[in-house]
Design goal:
- The complex is a heterodimer of chains A (385) and B (82).
- Chain A is 14% helix and 32% strand.
- Chain A has helices at residues 27-42, 113-125, 153-163, 237-240, 284-287, 334-337; strands spanning 12-16, 48-52, 61-64, 80-84, 95-98, 103-104, 111-112, 172-177, 184-189, 206-210, 213-218, 221-225, 233-236, 250-254, 259-264, 267-272, 275-276, 282-283, 298-302, 307-312, 315-320, 325-326, 332-333, 347-351, 354-359, 362-367, 372-378.
- In chain A, helix 1 (27-42) packs across helix 2 (113-125).
- The longest helix of chain A has 16 residues, at 27-42.
- Chain B is 45% helix and 2% strand.
- Chain B has helices at 8-21, 34-49, 60-66, and one strand at residues 70-71.
- The interface between A and B is medium-sized, with 30 and 16 residues.
- Strand 4 of chain A pairs parallel with strand 1 of chain B, so a sheet runs across the interface.
Chain lengths: 385, 82
């Protein structure tokens, strides 16, 4: 933080409509990027943000080039991308974006406006720069997929030290209300209170990849590991996939579609990014399981054979994603056809071409073609413990 | 002897960067050697902040870090807006 308790003394903060939009994006894309950037902070605090269509807001947002009236001129392309002022009257809280930059909606070619704005709004709310490379408030820009973005713990701790956590429950609600202008948006979400997994051996419920990143599920939480950060970030499943079940039994990524499938009980959900596809959840029987199967223990897509293996008790099925149906000759016994991984699988995933089957607090690195266990390791090693 | 690739332009750029983001202030007396010490101290601060090797001198890694896209807010908490 900036110290001296520099923060807003109220929980409802106003932000302005944008007068000069950047030409890089459509107005709808800019508005959506700004809304989601504020939502990042609203999710973990009691703060709500109200958009004003006229007058002076706490956070005035503008795009400008070079000298723009605040004694902190921008510097042309690259270099400084944006800046924002700490909470105070007048210019305090305002966020300025350098319009000599090329801003994008989600592409890594250019600077993702959502990411830049979320960082600047951290300043607008009272956060200074972080020395933690994985933090949103680290001063250097680094690309992260906006569809899978989760606010890192360092930033959560920082903002909650100023405003506290969100007391409203563990659901995310975004409501669009009405004002005389008809343009008021209020966002509320609860901050996750997350257990320390490193204090005891962890047993995963499920593991999946998504666009090169990894997600480890345990109860109602997930640990999100990316190439950008050496330490996985922790959050509630519901804060990442608002329409997901509270906890999951199994999960996998279909590399053909890039969609993630989550299984819970006798149902499964399919997500594109964070959005659940229409008509989901569906029943396991729609996937091709007999009605006698009450739940799936684990699932993994094996890229070398273009098949998804689904584990139920001591047997497993093979699913052909191309034909969208189960392969014939299944289920098979795990211990007989995948020797070396035991009789049951709690979670499974593929990483850098290797398969990992987790059972209890341990997991086995496995060579599928040779049907051989290569190594045994502890689950917690993936969580940076 | 290793030859520094840092140019006069780079030094000017680094000075501007440290003034902007690490509160490097101009020395009033141009003959004083304190200016160089101050620059070195600020370079060390910057190298510490970004987890670079702390040398107090402008090397290629430090210069490369300075040229990365970044937020325009000063990295020192004491550099407040007014």
């Amino acid at each position: 933080t900036f110290g001296d308790g520099l923060k807003w003394s109220k929980n409802t903060v106003t932000y302005s409509r944008i007068v000069d939009y950047t030409p890089d994006l459509s107005q709808a894309e800019v508005d959506d990027s700004i809304r989601r950037a504020l939502e990042v902070w609203a999710k973990v605090t009691p703060l709500t943000f109200t958009k004003l269509t006229s007058g002076t807001a706490d956070i005035m947002i503008s795009f400008a080039r070079l000298s723009h009236g605040d004694n902190y001129p921008f510097d042309g392309p690259d270099g400084t991308l944006a800046h924002a002022f700490a909470p105070s009257p007048d210019i305090g809280g305002d966020a300025h974006f350098d319009d000599d930059e090329t801003f994008t909606f989600r592409s890594s070619t250019g600077y993702v406006l959502f990411l830049v704005a979320a960082h600047e709004f951290g300043h607008s709310l009272g956060l200074s720069h972080s020395e933690d490379r994985s933090a949103l408030m680290y001063p250097l820009y680094s690309y992260k997929d906006p569809d899978t973005f989760v606010l890192p713990q360092d930033d959560v701790r920082g903002i909650q030290s100023l405003y506290g956590s969100n007391p409203s429950g563990d659901t995310t609600t975004t409501t669009t209300g009405s004002s005389p202008s008809g343009d008021t948006t209020t966002t509320t979400t609860q901050a996750p209170t997350i257990p320390d997994v490193c204090s005891s051996p962890v047993e995963f419920d499920a593991v999946t990849t998504l666009k090169g990143e990894m997600f480890f599920f345990k109860d109602s939480y997930l640990w999100h590991s990316s190439s950008q950060s050496s330490t996985p970030q922790k959050s509630l499943i519901s804060s990442f996939w608002p329409n997901a079940p509270t906890s999951v039994d199994a999960a996998y990524e279909n590399p053909g579609t890039g969609n993630v499938l989550l299984f819970k009980g006798n149902q499964y959900w399919q997500f594109r990014g964070k959005t659940v596809l229409p008509d989901y959840p569906k029943r396991l029987s729609d996937f091709g399981f007999p009605s006698s199967v009450p739940k799936v223990d684990a699932a993994v897509h094996v890229s070398s054979i273009s098949r998804t293996l689904l584990f139920v008790n001591n047997k497993y099925w093979s699913y052909n994603e191309g034909w969208r149906r189960m392969d014939r000759g299944y289920p098979k016994f795990i211990h007989r056809h995948l020797p070396g991984i035991g009789h049951r699988v709690d979670a499974a995933f593929e990483n850098r071409g290797q398969l990992y089957f987790s059972s209890g607090s341990r997991q086995t690195e496995y060579h599928y073609q040779r049907r051989r266990a290569l190594h045994t390791l502890m689950n917690y090693l993936w969580l940076g413990c | 002897v290793p030859v520094s690739k840092v140019t006069v332009q780079d030094e000017g750029f680094a000075k501007g960067y440290l003034k902007r983001f690490f509160n490097l202030t101009e020395e009033k007396d141009p003959l004083s050697r304190k200016g160089a010490d101050r620059m070195s101290k600020k370079l060390s601060e910057m190298q510490k902040f970004f987890g670079l090797r702390i040398t107090g001198t402008l090397d290629d890694n430090t210069l490369e870090m300075m040229k990365k896209p970044r937020c325009g807010v000063a990295d020192e908490n004491i550099a407040r807006y007014s």
